[in-house]
Each structure stands twice: as structure tokens, then as C-alpha cells.
């Protein structure tokens, strides 16, 4: 399986493509031979994704809606929704908390970028979300 990841190092973001074996436990089973010392076996390098390589298209029926258009509030990261603080029809001010996401045991608060009325909430508590996915739309 090929996974596309974004890695941030010293404030610079890099898009990388990583191949994950279908049987991820094959490398870590108890029957595997002992690993050679690190000095004699270099670790495999992870190469940055070439700019010209097209990303595989996600299936249309299972792809989450990407945030687009005026009033769209996207997910800043991949994670799980732990709280939805607003509902459709509610007025919000710039900076009000809309959604709380958890990723790697840390909470991230998604706030309103501007004042407005919540026209739709696209996620619920427990939903898994991807970076860029539409969470809330403001009118």
C-alpha cells in the first residue's frame, strides 16, 4: 500500500510517499532473524514524492468532501472528532471554537475564521477526518 504523508521538519513541510507492506507484521515477527548492528546496515531512505507523479484518485463514493468555496472551514489535520461545539443556524464570532479534533493524543481546536452563521455541520463526534476535509460551512 502506498501512503502519502506530510512531514514537518524545523517548520518546513514536505510531502512524502511511503510504501507500507500489506503484511506489516512480516518485518516484526518473533521468527525474524536478529537485526544487524545499525552501523553495518543503513536504513532505507524515504524519498520525496516527485512533483510530476499523479496521486491515485480516491473512490468517488467514499471520498470525504473537500473544503471549498466561501465559508468553508477545513480540517487542519487528519484525526478524530472529539467535540462539536456548534450546530446549524448558530451565530459565531471570529475565533469561536467550532470543532475539537484529536490526533496523536493531542487536541486541536478548529475555530471560526470569521463571524457568521453556521449553515451546516458536516461531521459528528467520533468521525475520522482527513486534512482538508470540510468540517463546517459558515454563511
How would you describe this structure to a colleague?
This protein is mostly beta strands and 139 residues long. The strands form 3 sheets. A 4-stranded antiparallel sheet has the order 3-10-8-5, with no helix packed on it. It has a 4-stranded antiparallel sheet with strand order 7-6-4-9, with no helix packed on it. It has a two-stranded antiparallel ribbon with strand order 1-2. The two termini are 39 Å apart. It has a domain at 72-138: RNA polymerase II/Efflux pump adaptor protein, barrel-sandwich hybrid domain (OB fold (Dihydrolipoamide Acetyltransferase, E2P), Beta Barrel), CATH 2.40.50.100. The protein is built from no helices and 10 strands.
Percentage of residues in DSSP E strands: 35-45%
Helix residue percentage: under 10%
Number of separate strands: 10
Radius of gyration: 20 Å
| Strand line-up of the largest beta sheet | 3-10-8-5
Structural class given helices, strands, pairing?
mainly beta
The CATH architecture of the domain at 72-138:
Beta Barrel
Question: What is the CATH topology of the domain at 72-138?
Answer: OB fold (Dihydrolipoamide Acetyltransferase, E2P)
Give the low-pLDDT segments: 29-40
State the CATH superfamily name of the domain at 72-138.
RNA polymerase II/Efflux pump adaptor protein, barrel-sandwich hybrid domain
The CATH class name of the domain at 72-138 reads Mainly Beta
